[in-house]
Amino acid sequence: MQTSVLVRSAMIIVDLQQDFCPGGALAVEHGDQVVPVINALAPRVAYVVATKDWHPAGHVSFASSHSGKKPFDSVELADGTSQILWPEHCVRATPGSEFHPDLDTRPLDVILHKGANPRLDSYSAFFENDKRTSTGLVHLLKGNGFDTLVICGLATDVCVFFTAMDARKLGFSVYVVEDACRGVDVPSGSVRNALTELRSAGCQVVQSAELSS
């Protein structure tokens, strides 16, 4: 990927929030290590969107919202979809919902809040987990003329994965920056499987150094 392409792209920084970093409520191992990589890339991209999980208290994805359940159990919701349950995390306007303090927010053009519906989770930056309710991001990006996306953040096998897969389905060219992502990897092998599936869907999985060539 040449610099001339990079400067015509939009970047999506997925959920680089304190609760997903070491010491947070749902920490991704070494999640903070992506910060300097993203800080180096973001100023060179034409347009930068950063997402935040923005859950109300008692959100449907929290294990504490379901009697007798614990984190990483699954439940079937009223609409028939399956929901993995997580520790309480990224409750809106709490310290855990804030960006990692070392993230340089100056390049950010838009902050998109997702997962705000108490009865519906949202892994993808483009759709709620019902796969129908749009966040509006596709219209923002296409309306501004972007057809190529650079995607990074947390976590590789959850919100980065679903964001990148939806981006491909929506017709974008997608570059997932592997060294600017970290994964939950539960169960073990989930990160490897996610990257394999992303490649099969037509995403380019690259290293940040390749974006500087």
Please, could you describe this protein's structure?
Helix content is 19%, strand content 20%. With 213 residues, the protein is of the alpha/beta class. The strands form two sheets. The protein has a six-stranded parallel β-sheet. Strands 3-4 form a two-stranded antiparallel sheet. The longest helix is centred in the last third of the chain and has 11 residues, at 159-169. It is globular, with a radius of gyration of 16 Å. The model has no long low-confidence stretch (mean pLDDT 94).
Please outline what is shown here.
19% of the residues lie in helices and 20% in strands. It has 213 residues and is an alpha/beta fold. The protein has a single domain, classed as Isochorismatase-like (Rossmann fold), CATH 3.40.50.850.
Counted up, domains total 1
Summarize the helix and strand pattern as letters: HEHEEEEHEHEHE
Spans of at least 5 consecutive residues with low confidence: none
Summarize the amount of helix as a percent range: 10-25%
- Strand line-up in the sheet with most strands: 5-2-1-6-7-8
